[in-house]
């Protein structure tokens, strides 16, 4: 199978791809990192670039409703000068949507026992390919988090098929789920850091849980903390960090095992725009080096500015799937 996922059957140490420790330097800010900095750590094989097809300029995807009055010219100018606009560049790698998808939903329905007559997801079909950056948008309760939890196998579909890296998660035995999750990094809105462990220990814990040897941990943890701009904060505890720094630790923990898929559930929901920009620059660089990123968000300005693929959910249905899309009015085109 043409995929950069590792087999879930592999266990034990993987010393062949160890990094040599980097000499201590002044920790760079995440905003100044380059794709080369990120690629040196990740070593994720990016999909081969296909010739860019001729694509018409995307239409604005926004509908003004009675409840949403038309923005004033001053407000429109403010949006156009978004802090995220620097991430919406035309030199983003073209992702060929051919071959085996990283994630594939085939007529997936998810019903919670407490709401048998209101499916959380209803007959959802979609494909996400290696190297894509996908925003999942929708109202609260539209099914965004449920979709992400199916990908990580926290939930099991009521019907249909959820396929990740060629593996049907609806048929996967529970004992194999931990090996699948080694290939999926997860970032949450509330950080989920261990309060009694330092930054270094929080990130190292992710490797300890999967049995990595101490030599691997000592090499990879400082390197990923340098990547997110926290090399000088590795001995601090979470309550000594700002919200943005805590989220960077969360990203570092998700990426330390170099997974080819990163799933983010509202990672900037508790952060102000300036700090969110640093997190999004980091995720954008990670994506440009081949990691597939799937991110649920309510941040209209971020989605409108970055112009990535947008999948909009409404009442458990996919109502829009648009390349280089905007937040829009969810399903309205």
Please describe what this structure looks like:
It is a single chain. This protein has 333 residues and is an alpha/beta fold. The chain is built from nine helices and ten strands. The strands form two sheets. The chain has a six-stranded mixed sheet, sandwiched between helices. β7, α8 and β8 form a beta-alpha-beta unit. α5 packs across α6 and α7 runs parallel beside α8. It is globular and about 50 Å long.
> Nearest-angstrom radius of gyration?
20 Å
The largest sheet is: 6 strands, mixed
Count of DSSP helices? 9
Q: Which percent range fits the helix content?
A: 25-40%
Low-confidence stretches: 8-32, 44-81
Structural class per helix/strand content?
alpha/beta
What percent of residues are in strands?
15-25%
For the structure shown, list the relevant keywords.
about 325 residues, alpha/beta, six-stranded mixed β-sheet, four-stranded antiparallel β-sheet, 10 strands
Quickly describe the structure.
The strands form 2 sheets. The chain has a 6-stranded mixed sheet with strand order 6-7-8-3-9-10, with helices on both faces. Strands 2-1-4-5 form a 4-stranded antiparallel sheet, covered by helices on one side. The longest helix has 16 residues, at 273-288. With 333 residues, it is an alpha/beta fold.
């Amino acid at each position: 199978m043409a995929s950069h996922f590792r087999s879930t059957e592999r266990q034990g140490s993987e010393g062949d791809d160890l990094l040599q420790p980097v000499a201590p330097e002044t920790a760079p800010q995440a905003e100044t990192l380059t794709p080369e900095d990120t690629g040196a750590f990740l070593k994720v094989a990016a999909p081969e670039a296909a010739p860019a097809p001729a694509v018409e300029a995307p239409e604005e995807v926004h509908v003004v409703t009675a409840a949403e009055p038309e923005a004033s010219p001053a407000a429109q100018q403010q949006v156009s000068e978004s802090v995220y606009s620097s991430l919406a560049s035309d030199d983003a790698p073209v992702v060929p949507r051919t071959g085996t998808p990283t994630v594939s939903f085939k007529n997936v329905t998810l019903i919670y026992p407490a709401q048998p007559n209101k499916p959380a997801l209803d007959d959802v079909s979609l494909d996400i390919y290696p190297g894509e950056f996908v925003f999942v948008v929708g109202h609260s309760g539209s099914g965004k988090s449920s979709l992400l939890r199916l990908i990580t196998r926290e939930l099991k579909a009521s019907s249909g098929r959820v396929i990740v890296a060629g593996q049907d998660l609806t048929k996967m035995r529970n004992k194999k789920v931990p090996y699948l999750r080694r290939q999926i990094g997860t970032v949450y809105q509330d950080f989920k850091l261990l309060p009694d462990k330092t930054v270094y220990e929080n990130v190292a814990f992710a490797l300890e849980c999967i049995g990595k040897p101490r030599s691997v941990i000592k090499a990879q943890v400082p390197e990923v903390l340098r990547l997110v701009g926290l090399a000088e904060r590795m001995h601090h505890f979470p309550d000594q960090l700002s919200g943005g720094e805590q989220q960077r630790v969360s990203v570092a923990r998700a990426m330390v095992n170099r997974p080819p898929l990163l799933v983010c559930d509202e990672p900037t929901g508790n952060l102000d725009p300036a700090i969110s920009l640093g997190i999004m620059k980091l995720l954008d660089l990670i994506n440009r080096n081949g990691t597939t990123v799937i991110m649920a968000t309510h941040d209209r300005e971020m989605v409108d500015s970055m112009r990535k693929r947008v999948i909009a959910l409404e009442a458990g249905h996919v109502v829009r799937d648009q390349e280089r899309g905007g937040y829009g009015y969810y399903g309205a085109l």
